[in-house]
Amino acid sequence: MSCHENIPKDEHGVPGSPRTTKSRVLEGGANMVQDFTPVKQICAHLNAFHVYATDPTRSVEANHYCTHVTEDIRQCLIYDSTKPNARLIGVEYMISPRLYETLPSEERKLWHTHDFEVKSGMLIMPSPAGVPNPAWEVAETSEMRDIIPLYGKTYHFWQVDRGDLLPIGPPQLMGSLISDDKVKYANPKGLAGLLAERDEKFGVDYRVKAEKRKDIEPVERHPGRSIACSQSCLCGSLLLIVVDADYMWNIVEQEKKA
């Protein structure tokens, strides 16, 4: 029997009673009298997919709501959807190459690139209602030029892809999908399979996006590094082993062939 069996749930299955009229009224009042300056600085909504650094077969759609701390640092709240009751599932920090170069070698292993996300059309900036598509495409492509050189560090706290009703367990380091071959680990049908539902939802086509971005210059990518994590059956603790990202992919390939 589930511990949540007798607790009401929302449309996602998340346990908890529906928000009361009192809560809604208080929230409305708070919007008028409290200072929400930090979150009011959110200036971009980006959508892409993250992959678990410990399991490249698992990917999660991520809606990023981002602010600029400086011209070299961005910070994004990550939600599982764009709905009012969207779940906050993680955070991502983005930094410029010149800041990335100041990081110690061990720290660099936790950061990922955005080159493939941009060039493939996976990363989008959903258009707001009422904005003419041609004008928005120009704005989006310009934003992609700014994002492509950035490095991202992402942790997810809520593993919604496996059906968790609450944020369970330790934070999970996430990475970006870096090639068509790597996408097929997350979805055997590749980008077409991974992005079909997302593209329909936002009324976009990743292939059209990729075509419009073909003139965006790719950036030089540092050797891919990541953290692979495995569960110890003896003590139940998490063993963190720093390995090359390519080595991690090779292990997965060997396991699939076994």
TrEMBL record:
Q: Where is the composition biased (Basic and acidic residues)?
A: 1-13
Q: Where is this region: Disordered?
A: 1-23
Q: Pfam families recorded for this chain?
A: DUF1264
**Family in the record:** Belongs to the OBAP family.
Protein name (record):
DUF1264 domain protein
Record the organism: Aspergillus clavatus (strain ATCC 1007 / CBS 513.65 / DSM 816 / NCTC 3887 / NRRL 1 / QM 1276 / 107)
